[in-house]
Amino acid sequence: MISICFRIAVIVAAYGTPLLSDALLDVPAPSNLPILFDSSNHLHRSLAYHPEQPARVEACVKALQEYQQESSCSRRLTLIDVSADTPGYEESDSEDSIRRQTISDAELEQARNVLLQIHDPSVVTNVEKRCQQSKQHRIDEGQDPLGFIGYVDDDTYLTTMSYDVCLRATATWMRAITWLYQQQKQNRDGGTTETSIPASAKSNGSLRHPTAMALTRPPGHHATHGMSNGFCLFNFAAAAAYHYQQLSTTAKISILDWDVHYGQGVADIVSKYPDTIRYASIHQSPAFPYMGTKREIRGNTLTIPMAAETTWRCGYETYLEEALNFLFASDHQPDLVIVCAGYDALDSDELASVSLNAADYGRMTRSLMGKIKESSGKKSVAFLLGLEGGYQLRHMAGGGNLQQAVVETVKALLEQ
């Protein structure tokens, strides 16, 4: 397969060191949709059963591989494994099915710098020290470096490798953002530098709104400026938004959170950027984190609580329209749209009681893409979806499971 390497330029940002120096994002042409995942995420796992488990990403990747094989979209969809050099993931027989591009040390350093900006530094350093000290203790005792540490709250666990997994997840979202920004820049400049895309890649016009997806875990949208909680150690969506603003200092960003639980962490962090970022959440109430209980706009955030048993036709479609109108208001035309893509509003998901089905996520994606096209004019708008919640993996689950909902999302993206 013909491929083109996107060498990311060294850009010095306001927060210090060069951005992703010498990093490569090798996206096969004419792929319009890179999907990044970390197969070494299994290093963050609970000893006992926990709904937030490595099988979530594994199931999604397997379903996307099957979709590639069954459809004509295979040349427009690229799975990119950014994992550490560790065993534990079974690669497909198809040599083009998964590309491997490990996150570099420079990317990890930059991700850490960003996390220290969006969180109170103690949030990052406490997790880092706890993991590193426990790992070193196990090594000193002649044990496997990978071990379970405990919990930071009732729901959020730590292993000796959790910091590494979450730092790599942050860098994954940031790598996707850098690629999207580079594509926007090429669209604006119309140049033919080494980051240019062949005409065949642009022929269907979808790269006018470059799109990427990050299938990472654990989720991040509950992590606030000052606290890890709700399965979430660090806030990846907020890190991605911050990173984009360092690349494009005048940019406006809209964040749609369709996870069934209110992403109070994103709302908390982006409230510090009232002029440039808007955040809208559609979530069940009452439900964890038992906040966002009123349908209201507060500054640059919109909360839309919904009742249990809400379906697409009976409520959700209207709520989504309201959220999109807020995120694409006449005085806020975004350059970047981020989706906190949780899939736990499925009727089959046991962590909530909303009644969407897998196909509804395709409808949601089409509505969002339609709004981007409608409001953007000739402007290139970047679009990043990142996995948050979604815990139903059982085959034949009524209304569909996580992996089916992810495939429906990807199908809708590839229609554009």
Automatic annotation (TrEMBL):
Alphabetized GO MF terms: histone deacetylase activity
Gene3D superfamilies associated with the record: Histone deacetylase domain
GO biological process: epigenetic regulation of gene expression
One Pfam family linked to the record: Hist_deacetyl
Keyword annotations from UniProtKB, A to Z: Signal
Chain positions covered by the region annotation Disordered: 184-206
Signal is among the record's keywords: yes
Residues annotated as domain Histone deacetylase: 50-397
Signal sequence, renumbered to the chain: 1-16
Protein's name in the database: Histone deacetylase 4
Organism: Seminavis robusta
